[in-house]
């Protein structure tokens, strides 16, 4: 590969005395981030390649804007872009004609789109054209303790459970008396109070509890009523505590310690924790299942994330060299390297499944990204304190409902009406909009 790079850089590989060291200019967040994500692998594969990193953090430490990227492209003329995947930034650069079409290069080198994770291809294709490639992606799965399911005579989770079905399955442990042994059916880090559970569910489903853009509380829907009913049952059975211990969350080890039957984790996270000495090594084998998935989109998950994207600027001086490096990072060989590192990042190259036989992987590679939660619904002419007050309302009304046997439909109507009054009470006067949390 080094010889190929020299040929690309000089065109004179046959005459060693005239060779010029191949060089590549890369746009990345920082030197450290580039080295961690890509640079070390590039250096090992192409030892003669000189890489210069142009740091976007120098232009904007809190997040580069499209205008700033365009300025850097014009001023520095990098050959390769290696930055965190921002859909709006990526699409904006492509729309402005600043990125190279990689589809032709893939076809010329025999790289079939079907060799890669379909969600990556879908997420980066714009009007039939690929302007970038993501070497890796992350996603989560349901993890469970098979021994606990066997002990309480409960069927383990199947692939494709929805969030609502996951909670219903957790309730079976409470019905089987697991609480007496201090065993919970489900444990989710940093999810404690009723509002936390509703918010977590909404993020996964792409459903809003309220919309500060339109000024409407949006909890009175069949989907919300169904989940609220299941969550009410969870609290009545003791699956969760209405008022958790004062110790707080932190890196909680309830599942690792065998005190919970199920949890949700980024793929390989537990193995990484044990490898790095963070948390407690599990004393039991772990089962995995694909999920939880959306109630209305069973093949999509909101947990899918692309850590970074590679793109070649239009008019780059070293286009062929940049493509050679990109192709290497997307290669079967790099999939093998990722497996050896036990990284939580899954290679977009499906060859990874030849090296890792985890039975959950084929199902994870078939998932597609779910449209992102509409964050713009949190922006409007309302005091940001509303969200805290609404959370307090949810927690209080759940306690009332559990204590008085109130059903899901009545609870949802209360949250809708009182939540709407609360939202209107937090409306700001024109010209006094506040920002921040």
From TrEMBL:
Highest taxon of source: Bacteria
SUPFAM superfamilies cross-referenced by the UniProt entry: Periplasmic binding protein-like II
Matching InterPro entries: Bact_solute-bd_prot1, SBP
Pfam families xref list: SBP_bac_1
Protein name listed in UniProt: ABC transporter substrate-binding protein
Species this chain originates from: Paenibacillus xanthanilyticus
